[in-house]
# Entry
Amino acid sequence: MSGKPDFQIPLERERYELTVPPAYRFEIDRREFFKFLGAGILIVGVLKTAHAFQESGAGRQPGESLPKEIGAWLHIGENGAVTVFTGKVEVGQNIRTSLSQCVAEELRVPVSKIQMVMGDTQLTPFDMGTFGSRTTPTMSPQLRKVAAAARDLLIGLAADQWQIDRQRLVAADGKVTDPETKRSAEYPALVKGQQLTQTISAEDSFIPPNQWTVQGQSLPKVDGRDFVTGKHRYPSDQRLPEMLHGKILRPASFAATLVSIDTHEAEQIPAVTVVHDGNFVGVVAPSAEIASRAVKVIRAEWKAEAQPADQDLFEYLKKNAVENKDSRGNASDEAAAVEKALASADHRLQQTYTVSYIAHAPLEPRAALAQWSGDNLTVWTGTQRPFGVRSELAEAFRIPEERVRVLMPDTGSGYGGKHTGEAAIEAARLARAAKRPVKLVWTREEEFTWAYFRPAGVIEVTSGVRADGTIVAWEFHNYNSGEAGIRTFYDIANQKIEFHPTRSPLRQGSYRALAATANHFARESFMDELAHLVNMDPLDFRLKNLKNERLRAVFEAAAKQFGWGRAKAAGHGFGMGGGFEKAGNIATCAEVAVDRKAGKVKVVRVVTAFECGAIVNPDNLRNQIEGSNIMGLGGALFEAIKFENGRILNGRFSSYRVPRFSDVPAIETVLLDRKDIPSAGAGECPMIGLAPAIGNAIFDATGVRIRSLPLVPTGLKEG
Amino acid sequence: MAKVTQLNVNGSPRTIDADADISLLSVLRDQLELTGSKYGCGEGQCGACTVLIDGNSRRSCITPVGAVGQKQITTIEGLAQGDRLHPLQEAFLEEAAMQCAYCTSGMIMTAVSFLRANPDPSAADTSHSKEGNICRCGTHPRIVAAIQKAAKALGQSMKESSR
# Structure
């Protein structure tokens, strides 16, 4: 294929017109960029400081390629339109809005002038993926730097035109002004006829949070209108002319292998194509209904393997633990110190906590639309890692990554559950056989079964405490669930903390907040147990063992707002939990009402205090915190995957309970805005304090200590 | 298999070609390109597919297209009047009652029907009316607030129009 892209095709950036002819090769070439975007100025932000240069004039250095280590780029067109390119994606966390705010702030233009092009492997710079609460701490600064450089470039253009000192000029409201002469020029006038490229590194400074005017404000979702009118096209809403629908024949159980197959009857249905490639069996048909019908009449025999059931899960995880080879050399010294401190403690306590597998259950299941043009593949799909899915596709079809383009329309959520490209690969395989575009939308049962789960785990904690409440020894072992949040933030002299990977009976992967939820559940429940052991108030006990000022501040703020220590109604209990994750600090207080006779536990009120540095968008932050609490309610109270012999037993919304309106407590959020601390992401940390707060509140109300998540899947049993 | 060849959608007769037993949701999405109604579960559990049939909210994923007949179907695409959003759409924007917004059209369509029968609902009644709708992002309190707000706006406009 020639390196010359065809730019004659009218492109609607971001929500591409799906009628455009197939993908072209987009070389990162300065000249081509301007041909594609039109004249104007282009600011390229490099990740590693390469050579910073500024170049003026049209095409003075023809053919010069742009640096490869690009984080983001920004273009200002002759009409003043600002287009920002980032590999990050929108799954409901509202970064399309918060990133627009960052650019608007630095560039000094209204947010409405900014268009974000996100998660298109052909147009946006490489990005690892949208996860780990990394967008706000990493992409925001990059975009701010790029936008600040664009602003400086515009000021420079005005200074050159007017032949005056640039120091005199200010940029505001989309124009550059000379305050002395009141002369001003709108950005489009300055940009007209230019083809300027500037590459910037990470050293430029930008506006400090205490001078923000756009950031720090509660801006509504920038394209909210498209969502309330049904206009927005999610991945499952995409379509192409000549498009067919796909359906996959799923194995009878996990790890089953295909022994024999009879597709004769399916192939008799008009316009149906059956695709059989090893263990992969799927059909393509003119409609999703016909595809489903065709799959149902395929007769397949699968060879299954015996596999564990959820009742045996925790025993299985312990039994199948792999020796942690990463254990540091001083592990035995640590063990000896902990042993010694335990012996000297006034009280010792050992407990075991467990967490179940749970499903992300994003409301939009996996979906993909795939189209081949010769050896080039284009896939629209919902994923948090468009570049990762591009690699998966390249590997699956043994083609170079340059021939694969993945586009990610704003998607119906992910929560860490859409890192992979299963539907993309399946749709692409079907499309290759059908020689037509194919759309595949997973059913809810498929999403529950063939995606991946939050890891289950077993956590063992042993500790010793002095009569005055000082914790002197801490031993913490996590089997399988993960290492996020495994380190204690309490100040304890002797510690031994270990993660033990094990074989997992189910396919597992990331989930919002990762293992921080499990580790905080164990740690903060255990802290409550220790507090009772030494007859201390749980808040006082925490503060006695906690030096970190930011964490102390959120615990105190949450307790104050909650009214910790006030009188409770009969059957009610209070509990707290909190911690530190992804550079955010959280403390959560919960009030539960327990009806012992009916076995019912109702969370009636939750107060969350959160601090994540300088706040970019307060209302969106509150929205994320409320959402974390409500989503977290499910995993805390009742969500658990049931499985047996490689089958999921409750893979539907009618059998897998997720939080509903009647489960939602009163939620109050206290935001601590630290303008002196760089902004951290906030989509994950706020959920980690909830489960222990509820568990501790149930104990407070009833004296029953529950050490497993979910806490009350079938209510609180009498006894 | 009986065929359905015509539906009344958003005030217009539309020509379709569907077996009577397939879901209304599939016909709306795949044949009429009205993708604002969403697939979420296929068993009437999540409410993402909610549309109005003669003004009553119905789960289109479990409604066979053959059962609709000549009744009037309203989808999220038919709610705004020209550029003027329905008060519920306005209220959802004002309260930021969405994150990924995949549940939003179903939430709004359920609420249209609810407010018609309950013009001045309490927050508890509003919350109760949404029990069959799932939001995974956790915007529930905002959704309740948006519906309460829209109820006030609708009540106001009713008063004004009756003057």
Q: What stands out?
A: The longest helix of chain B spans residues 140-162. Strands of chain B lie at 3-9, 12-19, 50-53, 56-59, 72-74. The CA atoms of residues 137 and 161 of chain B lie 37 Å apart. The domain at 87-162 of chain B is CATH 1.10.150.120 (DNA polymerase; domain 1).
